[in-house]
Every structure is written in structure tokens, then in C-alpha cells.
Amino acid sequence: MYQETTKACVELLGLYGSALEYTLRVNRLLAAGAERAVKAQVDLVDAAAEHLVAFGRARDPEALARAQSTLMKELGDEVVTTTRNLLAIQKETHADLRALAQEGMHTFSPALVKPLTPKMPKAA
User: Fold this and answer.
1) 0.85 exceeded by pTM
2) Measured between alpha carbons, how far is 71 from 78 in angstroms, rounded to an integer?
3) N or C: which end of the chain has fewer CB within 10 A?
4) 7 Cα distance to chain centroid
5) How many CB atoms lie within 10 A of CB 114?
6) For residue range 47-94, what is the model confidence (pLDDT) as tens digits?
């Protein structure tokens, strides 16, 4: 009985260690996705600021019109590109999380966990 209980405890500790590992891996994936998304958005804000500086330097109506046209076209293109990039980041992060979940389902399947729990002594 003692050996069975010890073995079950060791196996459960192994599963607990695996659970911690999966938690860390999920957090790393989420952090990496968030970091990439924030960087893309900061890059967009930086680009917008550069365009606004040029817009603010216009001294006559023609220069203002050119700066406005350039601002709208280039910034519009950058918004579209950034949006596509953000969608790609979301899809990649989702795919990575899905793959990790499938891997975890194998590790933590009920067929593996259930046989261990009856071996544990009941709390008094």
C-alpha cells in the first residue's frame, strides 16, 4: 500500500511539474504575441508622428495640400499593413496555443490522470 501511494504521489508530482511547464509555455506564447502586437502598433504611431511633422512644416497652401495627400495615402497604407500584420500575429499565436493545447491534452488526458487518483489515500 505504501509503495502504491508513493508511486502515485511521484506520478502526480510529475503531472504537476508538467502542468507548470505548460503554464509557462502558454504564458511565453501569449507574451510573445502581445510583444509583437505592441511593437507593430508603436511602429504605426511612430510613422504617424513622422508624417504629422512633415504636415506641420508646410508653409503654403500647396505644400499643405501635398503633405495632407501624402499623409492620408501613406498613413492609410501603413494602417492597412499594420492591421494585416496584427491579424497574422493573432492567427500565429492562436495556432501555437492550439498546438500546445493538443499536446497538453495528450499529457493530461483523463485516462492518465484518473488511474492515479484512486490510489491516493483519502483525507481523514
Assistant:
1) no
2) 10
3) C
4) 37
5) 9
6) 888 888 877 888 888 988 888 888 888 889 999 999 999 999 999 999
